[in-house]
């Protein structure tokens, strides 16, 4: 595909790098030459210095031949105007990043569709939604539902007391007659592998599991994990993510939000009906204790500073908080944070990339998730009649070794895939794939 990315910031750079790895032809537009140089140092892309709201600049980028136009600049106005112009000038599909929730309201969304914008992306809202999902499944460091929850991906870190440590994959499931869950990947020391029958689970492994609804409870017993009920939550930072999170959580939980800026604290307090806003420095341990950190079920750090989020989560963990979530925008910090005790990491770049990446797939991908602790992806395909994957049993069709079919939704039933499973047209199939397998996997669903 010919893809144009507007904005060489963190999100734009990450997208350009990821899309270039998939062998797409990527052009990045930004007025800042230094930022463009940073992009070219990290990805094999073309760059154009200029404003994406300039018709001349868009023509220079060969907008007429663009299959996908992605506007993710810092300025919401730049994104909306450039996306509108791009569609009028011939781009097949256009996506714009926005910063206002009101634009996503059904009546307002119609306005942007009429302008030619195919999709609006609001990273902060997506991040808040993901955090809410994780607070409902506290045993997992990452949680993704497919097909309305018929299948789920859960990610666990194995502790020393986990019952399956030193077990092989076969040993861990030998007493299970009807397989309702399956380990589809293991990340160990930064390397992700697709496990086979004789691969062993080790302490500190991050294990990726696909499960149907009946398999989640049994899987928790095997991994030694427990879900906790979250009733009391402390949020650090008054960011847009924090606002969306508090507005949703205050409906059913006790919420305390800590913000350092006095003026912002007053404005935030006026927004909420039940959430309590505290003006203070969230790095101050005495303040956190005074505000009852030790009695919280969950602590969510979403300030604009990754280091502050990591350190405050470590403090919360030491105070006995069972679930800690940190927003970390520096991807290099993610593994560090997980290794020193932060339960779950949220990254807006990866969340945004997940939402956008499915537009680049030639097959019917109904969902895709770029995983935080791994460079792998989990995808949900809708199987077309005549697709290669329907031509025999999974073990007989030469499915890529660096990918694995985790589960299948057929009608109202969901089941875990095995070697002798045969895929049918219109099945929804969840696949875990390493980067080397993405293109190969897609061909099986064409």
From TrEMBL:
InterPro entries in the record: K_uptake_TrkA (IPR006036), NAD(P)-bd_dom_sf (IPR036291), RCK_C (IPR006037), RCK_C_sf (IPR036721), RCK_N (IPR003148), Trk_Ktr_HKT_K-transport (IPR050721)
This protein's UniProt keywords: Ion transport, NAD, Potassium, Potassium transport, Transport
Residues in RCK C-terminal domain copies: 141-225, 363-446
PROSITE patterns assigned to the protein according to its UniProt record, in alphabetical order: RCK_C, RCK_N
The keyword NAD is assigned to this record: yes
Domain RCK N-terminal: 1-121, 230-346
Domain of life: Bacteria
MF annotations from Gene Ontology: potassium ion transmembrane transporter activity
GO cellular component: plasma membrane
Name assigned to this protein: Trk system potassium uptake protein TrkA
Name of the gene encoding the protein in the UniProt record: trkA
């Amino acid at each position: 595909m010919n893809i144009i990315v507007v904005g060489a910031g963190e999100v734009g750079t990450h997208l350009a790098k990821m899309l270039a790895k998939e062998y797409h032809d990527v052009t990045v537009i930004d007025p800042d030459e230094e930022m463009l140089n940073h992009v070219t140092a990290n990805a094999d892309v073309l760059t154009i210095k200029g404003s994406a709201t300039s018709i001349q600049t868009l023509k220079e980028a060969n907008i007429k031949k663009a299959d996908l136009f992605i506007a993710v600049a810092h300025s919401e106005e730049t994104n909306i105007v450039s996306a509108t112009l791009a569609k009028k000038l011939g781009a097949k599909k256009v996506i714009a990043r926005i910063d206002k929730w009101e634009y996503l309201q059904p009546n307002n969304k119609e306005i942007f569709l009429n302008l030619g914008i195919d999709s609006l992306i609001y990273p902060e809202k997506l991040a808040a939604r993901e955090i809410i999902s994780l607070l409902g499944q506290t045993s997992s460091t990452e949680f993704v539902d497919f097909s309305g929850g018929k299948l789920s991906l859960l990610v666990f870190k194995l502790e020393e007391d986990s019952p399956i440590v030193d077990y092989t994959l076969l040993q861990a499931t030998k007493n299970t007659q009807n397989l309702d869950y399956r380990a589809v990947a293991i990340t160990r020391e930064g390397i992700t592998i697709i496990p086979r029958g004789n691969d062993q689970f080790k302490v500190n492994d991050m294990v990726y599991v696909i499960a149907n609804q009946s398999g989640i409870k049994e899987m928790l017993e095997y991994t030694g994990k427990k879900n906790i009920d979250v009733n009391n939550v402390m949020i650090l930072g008054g960011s847009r993510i924090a606002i969306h999170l508090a507005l949703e959580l205050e409906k059913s939980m006790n919420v305390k939000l800590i913000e350092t800026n006095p003026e912002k604290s007053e404005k935030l307090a006026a927004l909420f009906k039940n959430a309590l806003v505290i003006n203070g420095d969230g790095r101050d341990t005495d303040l956190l204790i005074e505000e009852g950190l030790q009695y919280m079920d969950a602590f969510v750090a979403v300030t604009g500073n990754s280091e502050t989020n990591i350190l405050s989560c470590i403090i919360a963990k030491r105070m006995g908080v069972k679930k800690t979530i940190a927003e970390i925008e520096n991807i290099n910090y993610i593994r560090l944070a997980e290794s020193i005790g932060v339960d779950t990491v949220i990254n807006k770049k990866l969340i945004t990339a997940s939402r956008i990446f499915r537009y680049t797939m030639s097959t019917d991908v109904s969902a895709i998730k770029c995983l935080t602790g791994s460079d792998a992806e989990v995808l949900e395909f809708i199987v077309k009649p005549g697709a290669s994957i329907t031509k025999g049993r999974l073990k007989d069709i030469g499915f890529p070794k660096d990918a694995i079919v985790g589960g299948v939704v057929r009608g109202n039933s969901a089941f875990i895939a095995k070697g002798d499973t045969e895929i049918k047209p219109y099945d929804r199939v969840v696949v875990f794939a390493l980067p080397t397998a993405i293109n190969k996997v897609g061909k099986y669903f064409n």
